[in-house]
Design brief:
The structure is a homodimer.
Chain A lengths: L3 E3 L4 E3 L2 E5 H11 L6 E6 L4 E9 L3 E10 L7 E6 L3 H13 L4 E5 L16 H15 L6 E5 L2 H13 L3 E5 L15 E5 L7 H9 L3 E3 L8 H12 L6
Parallel strand pairs in A: 1-4, 7-8, 7-11, 8-9, 10-11, 10-12
Antiparallel strand pairs in A: 2-3, 3-6, 4-5, 5-6
Subcellular location (chains A, B): Cytoplasm
Organism (chains A, B): Hydrocarboniclastica marina
Catalytic activity (chains A, B): uridine(1498) in 16S rRNA + S-adenosyl-L-methionine = N(3)-methyluridine(1498) in 16S rRNA + S-adenosyl-L-homocysteine + H(+)
């Protein structure tokens, strides 16, 4: 936790907050913060700064807040991800939140196992928990928007064009002929398939919507690695 | 498992192998392979190809082998990584093996917890197990070399120069002024610090050895994400 994200309910006065639970335990037990220390904080969808510890126990921390900076720039990316298996979903949500993705669509695909849609990790509060961990890792405050699309065809035919707008449309697809472009300067909508990839019908539907197939070379990477490789390649490092 | 790595002990004749354990269970239970099916295989440090199933149970698989291709090109990278915490170590070893890194140094650093060096996951057979999983993911056969360096100063002063040779020397260090270069065409030796980063003394020692500090932007990424982002940025996608 490189920053604690503060929510409206944490604020006890204009420049005061009281935190409990995981965040209090982290500072009390992991960092050993003491009264008078400054700890890094950020206000949900707002500025970042520091909190001076006024009181601290393993149950709660009282802070005097001073905001002095802004969250890092969002990545100009809409990420459409075939729903990964639950264990990987949690890590991928943390990763993309840490890397500054602000719009994430979790999409069905032929090779997504039906049971993945039943996981409790898809409940809004569970998704939010992983996103918070990612934001705290990267010292960001802007909560990403996650949309669940459990049906491929109506999403691609009816909603994808409006979502992608004028952005560059790419689908990561191993075995295609074009390598993934590097350091591009425009917004991107990027689709990433499931383990085993999108089936040809799905790639065709995406190509019909103006998506270009690109690859990362001959190695097959797990989605948890393919996502940071693709994002690291597509965007200039100043975007991170 | 996108390919099963075969070891000399698996070979029962020139073009025959019998596999047991995890690999047999995978094909029998996960893929449901049957007699006559072809499954992807690779020979340790050798060619890739396929194996025709001659007999299969949950305990063992007999294969008739035919090799027809070569493993993907190695990445021209020596990766020097401050020893991550054990849970992350396992994932990072799989990731770097999957991405084609063939020389990995696990290095001590001031902020590496002493206890990390005691983990059973650093035993040669445990390291090898994670590397095999990474190779199988990426359909590679060339086993990486992992070197443990539990003392920072003698490694950097006495052995690093010979290890880095004429390669480009980079150290990933958040907060430095130069962004990480992109799509470079030469061999690289890359150092990545621990959670919390290298301390200034360590960065100075690396700079003394010709390493240039580069950053990935203002976001602080976990090492499991920083590694694929750095590798995706440094090397052309045809290298993967």
């Amino acid at each position: 936790m490189n920053l604690a994200l503060l929510f409206p309910a944490d604020l006890t006065a204009e420049n005061r907050a009281q935190l409990s639970g995981r965040r209090a335990r982290h500072w009390h037990e992991v960092t050993g913060a003491q009264v008078g220390d400054n700890v890094p904080v950020g206000l949900l969808n707002g500025p970042i700064g520091c909190g001076r510890v006024l009181a601290i126990t393993s149950q709660s921390v009282d802070l005097e807040l001073e905001f002095s900076g802004t969250a890092p720039e969002p990545l100009p990316l809409t990420l459409i991800l075939a729903l990964p298996r639950p264990k990987m979903l949690r890590r991928v949500l943390q990763t993309v939140a840490a890397m500054g993705v602000k719009k994430i669509v979790l999409l069905n695909s032929y090779k997504v196992e039906k049971s993945f849609w039943q996981t409790p990790w898809l409940k809004p509060e569970a998704i939010r928990e992983q996103l918070i961990l990612g934001l705290e890792q990267a010292r960001d405050t802007l909560m990403p928007d996650v949309i669940l699309e459990p049906r491929f065809k109506p999403f691609v035919e009816d909603r994808l064009a409006a979502l992608a707008g004028t952005s560059r449309r790419l689908v990561a697809h191993p075995g295609t002929s074009d390598p993934c472009p590097q350091a591009i300067q425009e917004p991107v909508t990027l689709c990433i398939g499931p383990e085993g990839g999108f089936i040809p019908y799905e790639v065709e539907k995406l190509v019909d919507q103006g998506f270009r197939s690109v690859h990362l070379g001959s190695r097959i990477l797990r989605v948890e690695n393919a996502v940071p490789v693709l994002l690291g390649r597509l965007f200039d490092s100043c975007s991170f």
